[in-house]
Inverse folding.
């Protein structure tokens, strides 16, 4: 799994909107706080709107605001919606599995599955609220410790 600039910028925009939850922000304000160009940000906000993470308000005092509460926005879901599967290889993907001719005796597939499961475990248990409140999951040894 690789998070592109689109995924990174979408999370930045959600964080900025979350910091101003309930308030409408112009695209210019969001752009200044995220350091993302207005043109690219418009495309990203349209996708976030399509998935019901944000809503827009028209008019002189228009702009964007969160559609959901920050505790309802799951980071794993956001990344999957914008970037696709979390698996590093298609043969280990749950949502977009593609068979491989070497799969039957493949000794790498368990590794890719573990990577997929670990990434999914962390992202699916993280909400926008967790990020806003700096409640990030820490990996320590073989245990995942949740700071909540």
């Amino acid at each position: 799994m690789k998070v592109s600039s689109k995924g990174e910028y979408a999370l930045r925009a959600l964080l900025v909107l979350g910091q101003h939850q309930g308030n409408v922000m112009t695209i210019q304000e969001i752009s200044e706080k995220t350091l993302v160009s207005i043109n690219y940000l418009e495309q990203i906000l349209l996708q976030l709107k399509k998935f019901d993470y944000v809503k827009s308000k028209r008019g002189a005092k228009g702009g964007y605001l969160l559609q959901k509460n920050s505790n309802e926005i799951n980071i794993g879901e956001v990344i999957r919606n914008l970037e696709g599967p979390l698996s590093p290889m298609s043969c280990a993907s749950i949502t977009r599995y593609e068979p491989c001719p070497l799969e039957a005796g493949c000794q790498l597939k368990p590794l890719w599955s573990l990577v997929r499961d670990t990434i999914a475990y962390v992202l699916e248990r993280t909400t926008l609220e967790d990020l806003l409140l700096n409640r990030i999951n820490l990996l320590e040894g073989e245990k995942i410790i949740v700071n909540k």
User: Anything to note?
Assistant: The mean pLDDT is 88. The domain at 5-66 is CATH 1.10.10.10 (Arc Repressor Mutant, subunit A).
